[in-house]
């Protein structure tokens, strides 16, 4: 009986600790900008350095929030580490749903630069909600580098 009470006490302490941790997570300002897109441990940044640090890259819809259905145009913005736009790059965007083992329902294509260093990626389509991952390859004067972006569609 005494052991049961101690066990129950331990469960309560663990539950309280979890609640405190949850409320701290909710208040963390860094999680606000991607509301609804955080997933435990997953990198949800929309701007980040490329894998070998050659470029800084951001990948965002050209307008609005992504939804399933329509084909949209996205902006892939590439700068060098000092923030200078990288123009004339060769860009390839691929993607899919890692958990489902399928790719994008379309083949996105870079159709030019909206402004120096901001590449138009046309043909982005989501066929279902869930976790999508984009794999971007960039070839420019500084060399070839890759970067991936995660997106949660609700
Ligand atoms: Cu899927």
Structural account:
The protein has 1 helix and 9 strands, in the order H-E-E-E-E-E-E-E-E-E. 17% of the residues lie in helices and 41% in strands. The chain has one helix spanning 2-27; strands spanning 47-49, 56-61, 72-79, 90-97, 102-103, 109-115, 118-124, 130-140, 143-153. The strands form 2 sheets. It has a 5-stranded antiparallel sheet, with no helix packed on it. Strands 5-4-8-9 form a 4-stranded antiparallel sheet, with no helix packed on it. The structure holds copper (II) ion (CU). Residues 97, 100, 102, 128, 130 line the site of copper (II) ion.
Helix fraction, binned, reads: 10-25%
- Tell me the quaternary state: single chain
What number is the mean pLDDT?
Answer: 84
Biggest sheet character: 5 strands, antiparallel
N-to-C span: 47 Å
How many structural domains can be distinguished in the coordinates? 2
Ligands: copper (II) ion
Instruction: Return the CATH topology of the largest domain.
Output: Immunoglobulin-like
Helix and strand run? HEEEEEEEEE
CATH architecture of the largest domain: Sandwich
């Amino acid at each position: 009986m005494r052991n049961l009470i101690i066990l129950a006490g331990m469960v309560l302490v663990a539950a309280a600790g979890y609640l405190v941790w949850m409320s701290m997570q909710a208040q963390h300002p860094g999680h606000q900008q991607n509301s609804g897109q955080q997933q435990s441990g997953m990198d949800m940044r929309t701007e980040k350095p490329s894998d070998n640090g050659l470029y800084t890259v951001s990948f965002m819809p050209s307008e609005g929030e992504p939804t399933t259905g329509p084909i949209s145009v996205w902006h892939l913005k590439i700068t060098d580490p000092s923030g200078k736009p990288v123009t004339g790059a060769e860009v390839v965007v691929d993607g899919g749903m890692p958990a489902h083992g399928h790719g994008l329902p379309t083949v996105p294509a870079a159709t030019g630069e909206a402004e120096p260093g901001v590449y138009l990626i046309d043909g982005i389509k989501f066929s279902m909600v869930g976790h999508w991952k984009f794999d971007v390859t960039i070839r420019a004067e500084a060399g070839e580098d890759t970067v991936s972006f995660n997106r949660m569609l609700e």
